[in-house]
Amino acid sequence: MTTPAKTSSRYGATAIALHWLLAVGIVGAFGVGVYMTGLPFSPTRLKLYNWHKWAGVTLLALSAARLLWRLANRPPALPTSIEKAMPGWQRTAFHGTHHLMYVLFFAVPLTGWAYSSAMGFPIVWFGVLPLPDFMPVDKALAESIKPLHELSAFGLAGLVVLHVAAALKHQLIDRDRLLGRMGLGPAPR
Amino acid sequence: MTVILRTAALAAASFAALVVAPTPALAQQKLDAAKSEMQFISKQMGVPVEGRFRKFDAQIAFDPKKPEAGKVAFTIDMGSATLGVPETDAELPKAPWFNVPRFPQATFQSSAIKAVGAGKFEVAGKLSIKGNSRDVVVPVALTQTGGSTTATGAFAIKRLEFKIGEGDWADTSMVANDVQVKFKLNLSGVPAL
Fold this sequence. Notes:
Structural class of chain B: alpha+beta
CATH topology of chain B: Lipocalin
Strand content of chain B: over 45%
Shape of chain A: elongated
Radius of gyration of chain A: 19 Å
Order of helices and strands of chain A: HHHHHEEH
Largest sheet of chain B: 11 strands, antiparallel
CATH architecture of chain B: Beta Barrel
Oligomer: heterodimer
CATH class of chain A: Mainly Alpha
């Protein structure tokens, strides 16, 4: 006897919810981050910097929750039909992209947090909860952390573009209903 | 006649001595700016941001045993303010904030000093920043080692009462109205406690 739930290639409801929540959050935080650095000294700039930091810490916490959830609830494997249709390099790219994205889910907010601490601006989450500074206040150190935050953020943005492009290629060109795995449309078999 | 004149001269001399004598001793009281700190701590969206003034001076005539007779005058060069970030430091002298070209100095002039405990005093006076004056009471604690006296204290001011942060920046949800002022002053020549 096989049960349909066991054979479904669709991610669980929690995993799907976390995926889309983080997708919106990451795109939003990245957009605000790119926009705010070009603004002149103003209340808007100050506001956006703080929102960006609050969003970053929230994304860090959600990513930790997501990783723990994923370790406890293994995601369903790719349907064999899709897996078989992929050349070896695509399978390597598929796993590599996901692993690297998970590394950057942590690296991007952590380097941002470290940069803020080293600049002497502790993060007060939503203006209420002061977070610890795990870096000393040191302008030279801050300047060396800044490019790491930028590079990791643009790296993550690049991977997101690749991730979306690959998903759309499966959905629209291969027509293998891959997006169903993440709750968009019927799940592939 | 000569006796009367002599007595008068003596009386005048001793009167002059009485009036003048305490002044040179008190006039020697000095602030060592290099060993002193003057900080201001504001809150930006809940984040405490520390700033400090690099240039300030004081004229002090104060005997801890006769605090009510004491006088303190303080001047701060507003152009010497720094938050440690060049972009922000460039904004502080501008009109919405300290307007340094028009109001280069902030001043404090004491009006009454009273003792409130061992080595503790309350200095009441007028604080003027950016052309606005307010009466403030500043608690000061004195400690002495050798010939030097350290005066420490902290008090809060409302930035909007001094029009610090005008226009868009008057929004206290962005920058809180309360600003803490903290100081540690190294003084020489203050008589023993």
